[in-house]
Amino acid sequence: MIELVVFDMAGTTVDEDNVVYKTVRQSINAAGYSFTQEQVQAAGAGKEKSQAIRDVLALDGGDHSEAEVQAIFADFKSRLVEAYDSLDVTEQPAASKTFAELHARGIKVVLNTGYDRQTAEKLVHKIGWTIGEDVDALVTASDVEAGRPAPDMIYLAMALTEIANASCVVKVGDSRIDIEEGQNAKCGITLGITTGAQPEIDLLQSKPTAVIHHLSELLALVDQTSQATV
């Protein structure tokens, strides 16, 4: 029986025109590099953003200091604030409806993200969602010690919603690291979704339970699982 669904934000439930990874690339390349957008998304998708910067820089095989990483990260945060202030952020199609349908089935809904809390809360507010109503909780990379693919954020989501058994949890995300996070937490179902950072061929490399193409497809999977356990 499914009791909790943990959703990634950017690319999964939030449509922000991929501005995060475009901004990561801008900040890294402003420091003297020439990484492509594809390289940035392949190496950094779904991760806490300073870790994403480390992993993108590592692609060139060079020696990069933590001071350099933090300088790029500071530039990224500044650029992202400006980008979000002017960006028309919306929810992914049927996100709110999917949350409501899950609640109607008695299933909790949590957002989790590689953003820090300040950025995540700004996004939630801009879309118009209310924590405690539209979703039951928000868990961010700055709330835990270890970011994805470590299971810490999912464990915190379970604690906040009083869910004891990870086999009753679904994790949904648009990157391989989302899938791996769910697997490391021993979630009963891990789903990739093709609305964001990585295409189906990449998502399948992490061996999710399934790959979906629209959030509404989640409901049929949840219902099938519930019927199978009756």
UniProtKB/TrEMBL annotation:
GO molecular function annotations of the record: phosphoglycolate phosphatase activity
One Gene Ontology biological process: DNA repair
UniProt xrefs under InterPro entries: HAD-like_hydrolase_sf, HAD-like_sf, HAD_sf, PGP-like_dom2, PhnX-like
Domain of life: Bacteria
Keywords: Hydrolase
GO CC term, one of those recorded: cytosol
NCBIfam families attached to this UniProt entry: PhnX-like (TIGR03351)
The protein's name: HAD family hydrolase
